[in-house]
Specification:
By secondary structure, the protein is mainly alpha-helical. The chain has 10 helices and no strands. Helix 4 packs across helix 6, helix 5 packs across helix 6 and helix 8 runs antiparallel to helix 9.
Length: 176
């Protein structure tokens, strides 16, 4: 049995202090314990926390995915990257984000990713529809949305640049 000043007890106390601020993944806690010189105790501390129910990577991933994919925040690709950076396995990150997207938009509406992309675009443009913006501003908006992790297909549906370019190349408005 370890005494109150043993490295294991110190590592447990540190882990509890870290978790008191907000939930963390096992990988984040392992990294923090390592930084504090408690790497040898990390496995035992993480197992102890999991037994107590204080460590739940899947639950953390689901909650964080819901937060990251709220309307006006990030797209699915960026949310998956954030989850993976926190130590969540890529397939678990994809599943958490897919679950969050399924809950984000009411059934029967446009696809969740498109709706979230449209919400962020609306926030960025002050509520003006992207179709009414000059081409340069729409291109800038498209780059912004792509950088926030939305797929090119979702950005195209919201911003509409490719549809306009296709009309131009076919000899439509202004072509010829």
């Amino acid at each position: 049995m370890a005494g109150p000043d043993s490295p294991l007890e110190q590592a447990k106390a540190l882990a509890l202090r870290v978790l008191a601020f907000h939930a963390r993944t096992g990988a984040q806690l392992r990294r923090r314990l390592g930084q504090a010189g408690h790497a040898p105790e990390a496995d035992e501390v993480l197992a102890w926390l999991a037994r107590l129910g204080y460590l739940d990577d899947a639950g953390w991933a689901r909650a964080t995915a819901r937060s990251l994919t709220r309307p006006g925040r990030l797209g699915p690709r960026a949310a998956e990257r954030r989850l993976a950076a926190a130590g969540i396995a890529p397939e678990e990150a994809r599943a958490a984000v897919a679950g969050a997207l399924a809950q984000a938009v009411a059934p029967g509406e446009e696809p969740a990713e498109v709706a979230l992309c449209r919400a962020l675009a609306g926030r960025r443009t002050g509520g003006r529809p992207a179709a009414g913006l000059p081409d340069r501003d729409r291109a800038r908006l498209a780059r912004f949305l792509l950088g926030r992790g939305f797929s090119p297909e979702a950005v195209q549906r919201v911003v509409g640049l490719r549809a306009d370019r296709d009309r131009w190349e076919e000899g439509g408005e202004g072509g010829g």
